[in-house]
C-alpha cells in the first residue's frame, strides 16, 4: 500500500470514530429525556381537568348532606337512635373529597353571602368556576335518592298507632322530582289545606291526630276535602292518621273503604261549627303530640327534599320548583361547603284583614305599611330572629332563588327555631315534647348546632302565617306545662343529647 493510501485510511478511521461519538451522545441525550421523570402538564390547563374529573366522578355526593342514599334512615323506625355525628361526618367526608373548590393560590374559596361586602370580581370568578366545573345536570343526577312506597301500612310507633299512607295522593312522584311540604294537625285545622296547596302546588304529607271519637270526623274531613274541595287535594295530599294506644277509636275502616265511599257536598265541612272544648282530646285533657305528627309526616314523604312546617304557614308561590332549579344549577359556593346544611325560610305575620303577599315585593310594601311583621314578634321574637333579617327585608326581589346568607344558630340566634327545607337525614324532633309545653323545636335546633349545620337562608322565599297577628296572652295552665317541659329538657333530654351528639361552644337550647 502506498504512503498516500495509508494516510487516507487513517483519516477515514478518525472520521468514523468522531461520527460514532456524536451518534452515541445524541442517543444518550434522548434516552435520558425519556427516563423515569414525567413532564407535568401546564398548570393553566391541568388543574381544571383534575377538578372536572373529581366533580364528574363524585357528582352523586354533590347534593345537600345525605350521608347515604335517601331512605336509609327512614326505615329504621323510632326504636333506633341515629348517630347524628357519624352521619354528618360521613356526609362531610364525601362532600369534602368531591366538592372543595380551590383557587390558583391553593386557598379555599369564601362563602357567597348576601348583604356582605367583598371582592365582586373574586366572587364572580368563583361562581364561574363552580358553573364550569359542574356543568349542567338533570334533577335526577343532582338528587340521588330512592323512591318511597305509598302503600298504606299500619304500625305501632312508641305509644301510638299510626295509619301510614292511610289515604295516599293519586299522583305518582319520583323522589327527585319535587319537594314535599310535611305538616301535622287535627281535623279542625284542615281549612288551611286548600290555601296552602294553591300556593305550594307540590306534594303535601300531613299527619292527623285523631284519638277516640275525633277519628270519625277526621275521616269525614278527608272525604270532604278530596271529593268536594280542590282537585289538588286528591292529587297531591297524603293523609296519615295517628292516635294513642290508650285512646283507640271504636272502628277503623280500611284505606280502600275510605277511598271508595262518597260524600254529600251540600253538607258543611266537618270542621264547621265545632266547639274545641267538646272534642275528644279536649274532654280527656290530652296534650297535642306535635313532634310525633311532625316526624310521621316527614319520614313518609315521597320526595328527598322536605319542608317540615305548620299547616297555618303558607309558602311563597313556586317555592318548590324554584328551589329545585337552584339545586340543579349548583352555581353557588355555599352549596359546596362540606358542612351539613338546611335552607331556612323567613316567616311573617299579616293583619287579619290583609291578603297573604304572593312575592317579596308585595311583602316589603306590607312591612313598610306595618300590615306585616316578622313572625312571633309580639310573642317570642328571639325564637324566629333570623340572621341578617333586616338586610333580607331591604334587599330587592330578584329572579330565581339564591343563598342570601349562611348563618349559624349561635350568639344572638342561640334560641332560633328555624323552619327549613331539608332532608330526612336531618335530626328528628323529640317526641316527648308537646305543643302545649312549648320549646318543641328547641332540642332539634341544639342538635343542628352541635353537628355544625350551615343555615343557608334563601333570598326570595318566605312563609306567611294565616292572616291574624298573634299577641302574648297569659295562660296559667300552659305556663305550668311550660315549666314541666323546661325541667324535662334540662334534666333528661339535654344530658342525653350531650352523650349522643356531644357539645360545641356557643350551642344551647
Protein architecture, described:
With 509 residues, the chain is α/β, with parallel strands linked by helices. Helices cover 37% and strands 14% of the residues. The chain is built from 16 helices and 14 strands. It has a ten-stranded mixed β-sheet with strand order 1-2-5-4-3-6-12-8-13-11. A four-stranded mixed β-sheet has the order 7-14-9-10. A hairpin with a 2-residue loop joins strand 1 and strand 2. The protein is globular, with a radius of gyration of 31 Å. It starts with a helix and ends in an 8-residue tail after the last helix. Residues 118-136 have a biased composition (Polar residues). Residues 85-98 have a biased composition (Low complexity). Keywords: Membrane, Transmembrane, Transmembrane helix. This is Beta-1,4-glucuronyltransferase 1. Pfam families: Glyco_transf_49.
Count up the helices. 16
Any idea what the shape is? globular
Strand order of the largest sheet: 1-2-5-4-3-6-12-8-13-11
Termini, distance in Å? 113 Å
Q: State the secondary-structure class.
A: alpha/beta
Total number of strands: 14
The run of helices and strands is HHHHHEEEHEHHEHHHEEHEEHEHEEHEEH
Proportion of residues in helical segments? 25-40%
Poorly predicted runs are 27-134
Rg estimate, integer Å: 31 Å
Beta-strand residue percentage: 5-15%
Please state the average pLDDT score. Answer: 81
Main sheet overview:
10 strands, mixed
Amino acid at each position: 500500500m502506498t504512503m498516500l493510501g495509508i494516510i487516507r485510511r487513517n483519516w477515514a478511521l478518525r472520521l468514523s470514530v468522531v461520527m460514532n461519538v456524536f451518534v452515541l451522545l445524541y442517543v444518550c441525550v434522548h434516552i435520558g429525556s425519556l427516563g423515569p421523570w414525567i413532564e407535568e402538564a401546564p398548570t393553566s390547563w391541568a388543574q381544571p381537568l383534575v377538578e372536572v374529573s373529581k366533580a364528574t366522578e363524585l357528582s352523586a355526593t354533590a347534593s345537600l348532606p345525605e350521608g347515604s342514599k335517601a331512605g336509609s334512615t327512614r326505615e329504621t323506625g323510632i326504636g333506633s337512635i341515629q348517630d347524628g355525628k357519624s352521619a354528618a361526618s360521613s356526609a362531610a367526608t364525601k362532600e369534602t373529597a368531591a366538592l372543595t373548590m380551590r383557587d390558583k393560590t391553593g386557598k379555599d374559596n369564601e362563602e357567597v353571602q348576601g348583604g356582605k361586602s367583598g371582592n365582586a370580581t373574586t366572587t364572580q370568578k368563583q361562581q364561574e368556576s363552580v358553573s364550569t366545573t359542574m356543568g349542567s345536570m338533570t334533577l335526577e343526577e343532582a338528587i340521588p335518592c330512592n323512591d318511597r312506597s305509598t302503600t298504606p301500612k299500619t304500625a305501632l310507633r312508641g305509644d301510638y298507632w299510626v295509619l301510614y299512607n292511610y289515604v295516599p295522593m293519586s299522583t305518582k312522584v319520583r323522589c327527585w322530582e319535587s319537594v314535599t311540604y310535611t305538616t301535622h294537625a287535627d281535623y279542625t285545622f284542615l281549612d288551611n289545606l286548600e290555601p296552602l296547596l294553591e300556593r305550594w302546588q307540590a306534594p303535601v304529607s300531613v299527619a292527623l291526630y285523631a284519638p277516640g271519637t275525633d277519628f270519625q270526623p277526621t275521616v269525614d274531613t278527608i272525604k270532604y276535602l278530596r271529593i268536594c274541595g280542590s282537585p289538588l287535594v286528591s292529587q297531591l295530599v297524603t293523609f296519615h292518621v295517628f292516635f294513642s294506644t290508650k285512646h283507640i277509636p271504636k272502628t277503623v275502616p280500611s284505606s280502600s273503604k275510605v277511598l271508595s265511599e262518597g260524600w254529600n257536598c251540600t253538607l258543611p265541612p266537618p270542621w264547621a261549627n265545632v266547639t274545641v272544648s267538646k272534642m275528644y282530646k279536649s274532654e280527656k285533657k290530652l296534650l297535642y303530640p306535635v313532634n310525633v305528627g311532625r316526624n310521621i309526616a316527614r319520614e313518609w314523604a315521597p320526595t328527598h327534599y322536605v319542608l317540615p312546617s305548620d299547616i297555618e304557614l303558607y309558602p311563597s308561590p313556586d317555592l318548590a320548583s324554584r328551589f329545585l332549579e337552584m339545586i340543579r344549577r349548583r352555581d353557588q359556593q355555599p352549596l359546596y361547603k362540606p358542612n351539613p346544611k338546611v335552607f331556612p325560610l323567613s316567616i311573617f305575620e299579616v293583619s287579619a284583614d290583609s291578603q297573604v303577599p304572593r312575592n317579596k315585593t308585595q311583602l316589603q310594601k306590607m312591612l313598610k305599611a306595618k300590615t306585616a311583621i316578622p313572625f312571633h314578634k309580639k310573642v317570642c321574637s328571639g325564637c324566629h330572629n333570623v340572621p341578617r333579617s333586616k338586610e333580607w327585608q331591604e334587599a330587592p326581589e330578584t329572579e330565581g332563588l339564591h343563598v342570601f346568607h349562611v348563618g349559624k344558630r349561635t350568639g344572638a340566634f342561640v334560641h332560633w327555631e328555624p323552619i327549613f327545607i331539608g332532608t330526612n337525614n336531618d335530626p328528628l324532633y323529640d317526641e316527648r315534647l308537646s305543643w302545649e309545653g312549648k320549646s318543641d323545636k328547641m332540642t332539634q335546633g341544639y342538635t343542628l348546632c352541635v353537628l355544625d349545620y350551615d343555615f343557608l337562608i334563601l333570598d326570595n322565599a318566605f312563609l306567611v302565617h294565616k292572616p291574624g297577628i298573634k299577641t302574648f296572652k297569659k295562660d296559667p295552665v300552659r305556663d305550668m306545662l311550660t315549666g314541666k317541659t323546661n325541667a324535662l329538657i334540662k334534666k333528661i333530654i339535654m344530658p342525653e343529647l350531650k352523650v349522643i351528639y356531644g357539645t360545641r361552644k356557643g350551642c344551647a337550647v
